[in-house]
């Protein structure tokens, strides 16, 4: 999308606004599927990254399945027309009742703790189940997104395999998949290759597997010249290891990945208008018409989003701290070198496709922004801006 096109979106739909480039999503999907030359590759998009139904429909049209973590995400997938057999459900800490609800919807169940595994297996031994293993591999760009280490709440420890196998034997349940996910923003493909050895060794203990799921966590570039996961190199090396495993296992199984950020992060732009330029004794603040209620990642993870002044891109650069309108510390970037910003200019945040709108809130009673999909050279509104009625819709107001 060009600056002119982005400015036209803000003019038509106002600011702040999220804009997603369909072509970028498609190209990322094609790049990933081209990297792995295996007998059967399945891509399950991680819905939690960006759950708009139009995005799910776009990915479904490409042949992509879904990775879900709640019954609500499963239902969104079904609403988008995704076949339930192409939806994998990997909850954490949910009730048995929710898992059974998803079971009745037809999605693939993935269980990550021994208690629920035993309960589910005892009640539904004929329903095939995938098991999420914790390989005890520390990986990820931030401690809050590293989920495969020994102290993680996710997965069944590889050291609990004897107990796990005993549950499977006692219940007579069938395990049709093995799964792991070590973290997000993984740069070193050696992490995947090392963890693959653990997963392949674990998989040999189950004789009815249909797939092996490596989760995801591929790192995307956040700024110009930034490094990223080398998908092509990972594809070559992991494909070889996977072929060796299938040969020793005695049959072909599917190789599964669950990318979220990798597919949608770079496709997203977040547009916000500058309300005020505020000069203090040490800092020049650019105060914009949004806050961490709409884009929490910088304050939550310390995440970096490139910020560009698309209203005045060719001007001399100055240093600004870009801040929001929330009544708390609310900083998107400190001392950023940006083309001279004037009140009324439009700023564009990059990498706004993943974990941005999906983590937005109504903090300070602000409305959540609209979402727009740029598809075939045209802007399509795929979610309306909230209104005051949305804030009060589910409140029961008492009279005093």
From TrEMBL:
Transmembrane segments: none
Positions that bind pyridoxal 5'-phosphate: 217, 355
Keyword presence, ATP-binding: no
Keywords annotated in UniProt: Amino-acid biosynthesis, Decarboxylase, Lyase, Lysine biosynthesis, Pyridoxal phosphate
Residue positions of the active site: 327
Catalytic activity, as annotated: meso-2,6-diaminopimelate + H(+) = L-lysine + CO2
Cofactor: pyridoxal 5'-phosphate
CDD domains in UniProt: PLPDE_III_DapDC (cd06828)
Modified residues (N6-(pyridoxal phosphate)lysine): 48
GO BP annotations listed: lysine biosynthetic process via diaminopimelate
Catalytic activity, EC: 4.1.1.20
MF-aspect GO terms: diaminopimelate decarboxylase activity; pyridoxal phosphate binding
Binding site for substrate: 297, 301, 328, 355
Pathway: Amino-acid biosynthesis; L-lysine biosynthesis via DAP pathway; L-lysine from DL-2,6-diaminopimelate: step 1/1
Pfam families: Orn_Arg_deC_N (PF02784), Orn_DAP_Arg_deC (PF00278)
Domain Orn/DAP/Arg decarboxylase 2 N-terminal per the UniProt entry, residue ranges: 23-265
Signal peptide start and end residues: none
Annotated Orn/DAP/Arg decarboxylase 2 C-terminal domain residues: 18-353
PROSITE patterns: ODR_DC_2_1
Enzyme class: lyase
Quaternary structure (record): Homodimer.
Family, as annotated: Belongs to the Orn/Lys/Arg decarboxylase class-II family. LysA subfamily.
Chain's role: Specifically catalyzes the decarboxylation of meso-diaminopimelate (meso-DAP) to L-lysine.
NCBIfam families reported in the protein's UniProt record: lysA
Protein name according to UniProt: Diaminopimelate decarboxylase
Originating species: Christiangramia fulva
Phylogenetic lineage: Bacteria, Pseudomonadati, Bacteroidota, Flavobacteriia, Flavobacteriales
């Amino acid at each position: 999308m060009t600056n002119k096109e982005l400015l036209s979106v803000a003019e038509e739909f106002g600011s702040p606004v999220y804009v997603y480039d369909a072509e970028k999503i498609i190209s990322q999907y094609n790049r990933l599927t081209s990297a792995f030359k295996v007998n059967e590759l399945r891509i399950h998009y991680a819905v939690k990254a960006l759950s708009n139904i139009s995005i799910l429909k776009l990915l479904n049209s490409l042949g992509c399945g879904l990775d879900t973590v709640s019954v609500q995400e499963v239902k969104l997938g079904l609403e988008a027309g995704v076949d339930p057999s192409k939806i994998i459900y990997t909850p954490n800490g949910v009730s048995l009742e929710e898992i059974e609800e998803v079971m009745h919807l037809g999605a693939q169940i993935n269980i990550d703790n021994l208690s629920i595994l035993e309960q589910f297996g005892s009640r539904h031994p004929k329903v095939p189940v995938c098991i999420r293993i914790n390989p005890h591999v520390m990986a990820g760009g931030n401690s809050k997104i590293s989920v495969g280490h020994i102290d993680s709440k996710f997965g069944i420890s590889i050291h609990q395999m004897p107990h796990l196998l005993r549950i499977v034997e006692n219940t007579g349940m069938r395990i049709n998949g093995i799964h792991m996910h070590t973290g997000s923003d993984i740069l070193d493909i050696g992490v995947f290759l090392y963890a693959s050895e653990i997963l392949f060794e674990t998989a040999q203990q189950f004789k009815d597997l249909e797939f092996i799921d490596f989760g995801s966590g591929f790192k995307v570039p956040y700024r110009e010249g930034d490094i990223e996961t080398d998908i092509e190199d990972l594809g070559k090396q992991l494909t070889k290891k996977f072929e060796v495993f299938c040969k020793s296992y005695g049959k072909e199984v599917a190789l599964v990945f669950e990318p979220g950020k990798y597919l949608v992060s770079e496709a997203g732009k977040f547009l916000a208008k500058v309300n005020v330029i505020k000069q203090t004794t040490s800092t020049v603040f650019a105060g914009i018409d949004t806050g961490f209620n709409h884009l929490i990642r910088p304050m939550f993870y310390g995440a970096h989003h490139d910020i560009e002044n698309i209203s005045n891109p060719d001007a001399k650069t100055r240093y600004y701290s870009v801040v929001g309108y929330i009544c708390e510390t609310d900083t998107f970037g400190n001392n950023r070198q940006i083309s001279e910003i004037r009140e009324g200019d439009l700023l564009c945040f990059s990498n706004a496709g993943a974990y941005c709108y999906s983590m937005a809130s109504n903090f300070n009673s602000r409305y959540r922004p609209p979402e727009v999909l740029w598809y075939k050279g045209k802007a399509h509104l795929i979610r309306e801006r909230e209104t005051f009625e949305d804030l009060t819709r589910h409140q029961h107001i008492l009279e005093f």
